Amino acid sequence: MTFRFVPFLVLILVASTYSKHNDDFESVKHGITQLFKTGNKPYFAKTAKSYQLPHVLREHMEKVYNNEEICTLCNLLFDLVIDEWKQGMTKDKILDIVKYICVTLGIENDRVCNGSITINADIVFYIVENYPDIKANRLCGSVLQAFGCSTGDDFDWSIILPPGNAAKRPQPDTSGSSFNILQLSDIHYDPNYKINGKANCGEPVCCQEDQGEADSPENACGYWSDYRFADTPWHLVEETIRQTKTQDFDYVYYTGDIISHRVWQTTVENNTKTISKLYSFFKQSYDVPVFPIFGNHEPHPLNVWPDDRLKDETLSVKWLFKLAADEWSKLIGQDVSETVLKGGYYSVSPRPGFRIIGVNGNLCYTDNWWLIYDDVDPFNQLQWLADTLEQAEAANESVHILSHVPTGDISCLKVWSREYHRIVERFSSTITGQFNGHTHRDEFHVYYNSSAPTEAIGVAFNGASVTPYDSSNPSYKLYRVDQSTYSLLDYEEWTFNLTLANSQPVSETPEWYKLYSFAQAYGVNNLQAIEVDKVLYKMAQDHSLLDDYFRFKFRNGDDGINAGCSETCRKENLCDIAKAQFADNTQCDYFLQLYEQGKQT
Ligand SMILES: *[C@@H]1O[C@H](CO)[C@@H](O)[C@H](O)[C@H]1NC(C)=O
Ligand SMILES: *[C@@H]1O[C@H](CO)[C@@H](O)[C@H](O)[C@H]1NC(C)=O
Ligand SMILES: *[C@@H]1O[C@H](CO)[C@@H](O)[C@H](O)[C@H]1NC(C)=O
Ligand SMILES: *[C@@H]1O[C@H](CO)[C@@H](O)[C@H](O)[C@H]1NC(C)=O
Ligand SMILES: *[C@@H]1O[C@H](CO)[C@@H](O)[C@H](O)[C@H]1NC(C)=O
Ligand SMILES: [Zn+2]
Ligand SMILES: [Zn+2]
């Protein structure tokens, strides 16, 4: 997850407080234009008084704001930036104006606006300067895809798939021998974590050394972290790894995000230190192979993955690819550097008949500015993925795919999401497991056959997160895997009660417990797509299963579950499970119909 997320209650509050009048909107537009043309700050400030956009760039804000207005403002702003830049306004002057707009509209506070804009400026200017005849809608249409902003006709391409259908392969043997795989995700280790710091700070991450003291005991950050926008102190990293080692497993999957949500102040040097520290700790702690992938938080600035054609080395992510090529090869126990240096992805076979593919799924994330410059299969990754799966199919291998951002995510670029879905469909029997992270929620998504939409052909499970950010209890997953087909048979979700742990003396370790096992909680035989599809039918009938799903999403985290799950929330959850491709509502609509019938019976 990036730093975009605000609890639902706040959303409602913000939405009603700032419901806009047309006049206010027109006036703020005029204010912005004047700001660029005449530099009139007081006039703009006056127009912004009744038109505030707090946290508009955080996650899920498309549910809060008038999307059309946001798209219009984005286009207006970037048209002005592009024009003024071309007409010779200096970079410093443009940045000064954009920062002023950010603070004055209440989007974030001073230092968050300043920091975020400063560290992203060079890459945006590079794109504006080097993309031939760039238009604002190319920029707003991709970055604000979640708001439904239009991209024009751009952003369409496809990769080449081999002809034919998915090969027939054997069904899993539930009674045969099996082994375990541990999935850890989204640790977001925070070197600045301050015990008893301020948990209600208003910035994208709280409990920071430089945010001052808590104003009351209720607002003080706990020893083991906090439900309110806090990340993971080192002792929680150690405690989690220690606890996982009481389990038995053959492999570890780490599905990304190491860096904290202090997104306005990252540096290459500090990210390098943090990333190396965690990987070294994995290496020293586990005596089995660890398979890591990138999260969107690993680069500096976060989210941005420029490719090799970038002429300016200072903006490149090569440093990160080099770091990973080295560290991952050690953790995996095989040299993966060739493809990691190309684009942060790899394919390895840890035992005959089994292959693990690490995908850099962050390339589809719409906050990746580089997509504006070139969205066509970045780093040729999807074509490589298809080719690699074709070889795996020919070799009769079973494949697990690790990828950070779920493909049905509202912030995964539509065309990339569609092409990924085509790959999953073509190789549905070769792919026997998919593992995501990023959302910090315990979730799963079912892939359906586009030619036979009720036919389930794949499932992606989310590793949830170690960080409580936000509202969740820290957790990990332990999968049971069929030894002969490498299909997933079940998983267990392990967690502890953060409220309880924080109320105990610090000398006591948290009481970890198994929250549930999938097969047992949902009454299915294994984690094959057809079995998981049955869960959706059950949920549509028996809505208490959706209440369980809701609790599990937050791993029983008090702040998460105390908010409650309304009828709308239940339906959204059901819909999300049935969606693995951006804006594909086919199965979602189908299950919602069943849900309504379920209410009548
Ligand atoms: C703005 O952010 C940059 C980068 O983090 C920093 O160097 C600079 O001092 C900041 N300026 C202000 C006025 O805070
Ligand atoms: C980088 O890390 C050092 C040591 O933890 C810290 O003092 C410094 O403030 C960090 N730099 C930034 C820009 O956050
Ligand atoms: C999807 O459905 C089509 C049409 O029924 C079928 O030919 C194809 O084999 C199915 N694909 C998978 C992966 O089951
Ligand atoms: C392919 O692999 C499966 C195990 O996943 C095995 O049962 C089957 O015999 C293999 N087929 C061939 C032709 O090797
Ligand atoms: C977590 O522990 C606290 C403190 O003991 C308790 O009040 C709360 O009900 C527990 N939460 C859950 C979901 O059991
Ligand atoms: Zn994350
Ligand atoms: Zn993420």
UniProtKB/TrEMBL annotation:
Its main location: secreted. GO terms for biological process: ceramide biosynthetic process; sphingomyelin catabolic process. GO terms for cellular component: extracellular space; lysosome; membrane. Coiled coil: none annotated. Its cofactor is Zn(2+). It is found in: Secreted. It holds the Pfam family Metallophos. Its EC number is 3.1.4.12. Disulfide bonds join C102-C113, C201-C206, C364-C412, C565-C569. It comes from the Eukaryota. Binds 2 Zn(2+) ions per subunit. Zn(2+) 2 binds at D257, N296, H404, H438. Residues 67-153 form the Saposin B-type domain. It catalyses: a sphingomyelin + H2O = phosphocholine + an N-acylsphing-4-enine + H(+). Zn(2+) 1 binds at D186, H188, D257, H440. GO terms for molecular function: acid sphingomyelin phosphodiesterase activity; hydrolase activity, acting on glycosyl bonds; metal ion binding. Residues 1-19 form the signal peptide. It is an enzyme of class 3 (hydrolase). Keywords: Disulfide bond, Glycoprotein, Glycosidase, Hydrolase, Metal-binding, Secreted, Signal, Zinc. Converts sphingomyelin to ceramide. Belongs to the acid sphingomyelinase family. PANTHER family: SPHINGOMYELIN PHOSPHODIESTERASE. This is Sphingomyelin phosphodiesterase.
